[in-house]
Automatic annotation (TrEMBL):
This is Adenylosuccinate synthetase. Its main location: cytoplasm. It comes from Candidatus Aquitaenariimonas noxiae. Transmembrane segments: none annotated. NCBIfam families: PRK01117.1 (NF002223), purA (TIGR00184). The active site is at 13 (proton acceptor), 41 (proton donor), 141. The gene is purA.
Length: 429
């Protein structure tokens, strides 16, 4: 297996956790490169559900090294909680199988507070963030006042940087948001304590990964969120604050682009979105509950109900383009099992024009009406099927249509939450 990047090709929640879990068995290193604890990657093993927010999904496999790269917005509290939860479920988590980049930026309580206050102030233009402090943390990084893991390890550095940041943030809280400030003493003491607990995991992950590449080790890069939430290529401003596309794997780890051999895009057999922003193929209200309940479409991080809609080939074609996707994994095909008719969006109608590509202007997107191609449903259970040939005729037809529209082969089809509920399409017999 070469070095593979797995990206979400819709608005996140495509089922990347399960796909990573499957591919992880062939990898030596599994690496998160962006996002933070806003992500929620679900893996189900023998009926036990694991939801991973910061730690790569590969942690569930023995003998693998998991890496949290420099591009991740690192929340020490969430991290330590996750380590404890995994240990309590019998998963081994030590400095030998988990390394955190010293260059990752750290989330502080003032980032979370600012995230919430800013959202509340925005009123109708709210983004619907996860309120995990992601945007404010990345904003500090780009403003060059962020605090990195390596600063956390040095009490003098931490004191100086934290003093400056808290003074600035408290001014904002008081004068702009009419809210109480945060306490330097409390945060400093709390983060000194976190630093001591985190220290064993900290390392130079850029060197570790580049050394691994030299030794021909296999690396799996685990993207979080999805392409349409990418800060540059998504439905800006209704996006997250990191590079969720395949290019983010280089920036968020310090490996060069020539070391990436393959990009796998993960899509649901339909579409979902959490939070605000345009969603051209969103279902009318009568269909939403049917799919939401069957697909358990509630956020793994916030529990919020997800918005649901038909598969949008314009969205995924955009993702194929900006990520250079080589192969597609389709998840949750079984959720459509009872649908008598299934639509695929094949274009947008905007005033007198027809769009065959994804428009970057959300004002245009808000006015776009989807053009649908209707497909007959298969009305049969698919969740025990192991081979493509055994799928109902109309399910095969649906997948073949997606493949043709996207111009990319589909290699993995997931028909249930368990590890074994998977079909490899085109795999050598
Ligand atoms: P933030 O990342 O918390 O700033 O949220 C920005 C937008 O991205 C909101 O619409 C969130 O709902 C969405 N978002 C963030 N993380 C995820 C995710 O892991 N899955 C799906 N949506 C996400």
């Amino acid at each position: 297996m070469p070095n593979i990047v797995v990206v979400g090709a819709q608005w996140g929640d495509e089922g990347k956790g399960k796909i990573i879990d499957i591919l992880a068995s062939d990898a030596n290193y599994i690496v998160r490169y962006q996002g933070g604890s806003n992500a929620g990657h679900t893996v189900v093993l023998k009926g036990k559900e694991f939801i991973l927010h910061l730690i790569p999904s590969g942690i569930l496999h023995r003998g693998k090294v998991c890496i949290i790269g420099n591009g991740v917005a690192f929340d020490p509290m969430a991290f330590l909680e996750e380590v404890e939860t995994l240990k309590s479920k019998g998963i081994d988590v030590t400095k030998r199988n988990l390394v955190l980049s010293e260059k990752a930026h750290v989330i502080f309580p003032y980032h979370k507070k600012l995230d919430s206050l800013r959202e509340a102030k925005k009123g109708t233009t709210t983004i619907g963030t996860t309120k995990r402090g992601i945007g404010p943390c990345y904003a500090d990084k780009v403003s060059r006042c962020g605090i990195r893991v390596l600063d956390l390890m040095d009490s003098k550095n931490l004191r100086e940087k934290l003093k400056f940041n808290i003074k600035e943030k408290n001014t904002l809280f008081k004068y702009l948001y009419n809210s109480d400030g945060v306490s330097f003493d409390e945060i400093y003491a709390q983060y000194r304590d976190y630093a001591n607990q985190i220290r064993p995991f900290v390392g130079n992950t850029t060197i570790i990964l580049n050394e691994a590449i030299k030794k021909n080790k296999r690396i799996l890069f685990e993207g979080a969120q999805g392409t349409l939430l990418d800060i540059d290529h998504g439905t800006y401003p209704f996006v997250t604050s990191s590079s969720a596309t395949s290019g983010g794997a280089c920036i968020g780890t310090g490996i060069g682009p020539t070391h990436i051999d393959k990009v796998i895009g993960v899509v649901k057999a339909y579409t979902t979105r959490v939070g605000e922003g345009p969603f051209p193929t969103e279902f009318p209200s009568d269909l939403i509950n049917k799919i939401r309940n069957r697909g358990k479409e509630f956020g793994a991080t916030t529990g919020r109900p997800r918005r649901c809609g038909w598969f949008d080939s314009i969205v995924v074609k955009h993702s194929v383009l900006v990520n250079a996707i080589d192969e597609i994994a389709v998840t949750k095909l079984d959720v459509l099992d009872q649908m008598p008719k299934i639509n695929i969006c094949v274009g947008y109608k905007y005033r007198n024009k027809v769009y065959k590509f994804f428009p970057p202007d959300i004002n245009v997107l808000n006015e776009c009406r989807p053009i649908y191609q209707a497909h007959p449903g298969w009305l049969k259970d698919t969740n025990q099927i192991k081979k493509f040939e055994d799928l109902p005729y109309n399910a095969k037809r649906y997948l073949n249509t997606l493949k043709k529209l996207l111009g990319v082969k589909i290699t993995i089809i997931s028909v249930g939450s368990e590890r074994g509920q998977i079909i490899r399409w085109g795999a050598k017999k």
